[in-house]
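User: Predict the full complex structure for these chains.
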Amino acid sequence: MAFGPAGWWPAQTPFEVCLGAILVQNTAWPNVERALAGLRARGLLEPAALASLPQAELAELLRPAGTFNVKARRVRAWLEFLHQDFGGRVENLAGVPLGELRPRLLQVHGLGPESADAILLYAVGHPVFVVDAYTTRIFARLGLARRQAGYDELQAFITSRLPEDAGLFNDYHAQLVRLAKEHCRVRPRCATCPLEGVCLRRGVPMR
DNA sequence: GCCCAGGTGGGTA
DNA sequence: TACCCACATGGG
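Assistant: Here is the predicted structure of the three-chain assembly.
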């Protein structure tokens, strides 16, 4: 555990959590790692340094993560928000109550519910359950939640059945991701995987 | 070559 | 509100 709430999200600082939350949008994590490594090698994993880059240059550095022009705009929006409202320090987000902070994050260009919640849980330490594609697929295909359930509905479904604990949400999410990835590795043998025939691949209908 | 990945914003009906 | 669609790299 490298910092505060800590845990499973692969990052060394709260700021890296935030960057990762944006860069991983619709992207495989190894591509995010490549982009973060490039930034790290240039000493740019820090708000002020990153904010000093022209957008075109930032986009080039984000290229390995895919949709890099989009993500460059979103990262800059995040940096602007951090600078304007929090003195450029992610740590200062902790001073705002969750009920007030989440709506403010959702106003930032490029932060939807999942990215905002990842920041709230993994960078700030609030007890917020992060609903990602793995979560949605697993719950839908196990028949635990309505297949058409939207983000807020599924989040409420899960949260209402668990104690409100950031550490637990952190671990629960990690287990879901591990389960989904493990399943992907064994997918030629769906029938023998831990989910007993439930396929987690995207686009595969239930049963 | 094709499908897919830890989403989001913008456009249209 | 409820769908489409663009965004784009790298792995299987």
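Chain A has ten helices and no strands.
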